[in-house]
Amino acid sequence: MAALGLAIMVGAAVGLIVGETLGGALGLLAGALVLALAMILAGALRRRSGALAFLSALTLAAGLLTGFLSTMPGLTLGYASLTNNQEAHVRQPFGDLYLQLHPHDGGPRPIEIEKGSGRTEIFVDAGVQLQLRGTVGDAVEVSWLRIDPDDPTVMDTGVIPATPRGGENVVNANISAGEGSPSTIQPVTIDQSSGTIVVTLQEPEEGQE
Questions:
Q1: How far apart are CA 56 and CA 59, in angstroms?
Q2: Which conformational region is residue 74 in: left (phi greater than 0), alpha (psi within -120 to 50 degrees), or beta?
Q3: Which of helix, strand or coil describes residue 49?
Q4: Residues 6+ apart with CB under 8 A from 68
Q5: Is the CB of residue 114 less than 8 Å from the CB of residue 137?
């Protein structure tokens, strides 16, 4: 269908010019406009335009939804993966999240996570101290495990307790692998309603303390 092809071309062009999430929203809205004009033209020529009307409404709804999501920085749906290469604020209604914390020479790079349900895994490299703060739902279990650097077997496990405070369950823990002083202090704040939080500590290699 020529109208659909033109809508895709116009939408893609707008999206590429604007870029990022807002570009996707404007691209979809531009495609919806093309389809709407094609529907009007089909009506003027007394052609059936039911399919065009459906596609136009669908594209418009997708454009409006994408535009709404673009106003919420850091929003991610489903799977998410990030590191502490830079500070971040993630909003995740559901899904799994994997956070890798590396040692670095820069200043603090705070990471804030607002999460509904799912699994959150925080991997802490040797030389990093995780400063974990936040609130969790009643059913959220916060645990940690320590793994060997050469053979990825579990050396030890434990639970990070949540303390009831003012109607909330508060998590407050500083945790790192090894016995030496960490070179990187990494603050992570998390607000999670349900699911699990697992902190994996990477033991330093022999002689790396």
A1: 5
A2: left
A3: coil
A4: none
A5: no
User: H or E stretch including 26?
Assistant: helix 20-44
DSSP element (H, E) containing 133 = strand 128-136
Reduce the DSSP state of residue 3 to 3 states and report it. helix
**Tens of pLDDT along 99-145?**
999 998 888 889 999 998 999 999 999 889 999 999 998 888 899 99
H/E stretch holding 54 reads helix 50-70
Q: Are 144 and 202 in contact (CB under 8 A)?
A: no
Query: 């109208």: which residue's tokens?
Result: 3
Alpha-carbon distance of 75 to 134, in angstroms, equals 19
Query: What pTM was estimated for this model as a whole?
Result: 0.65
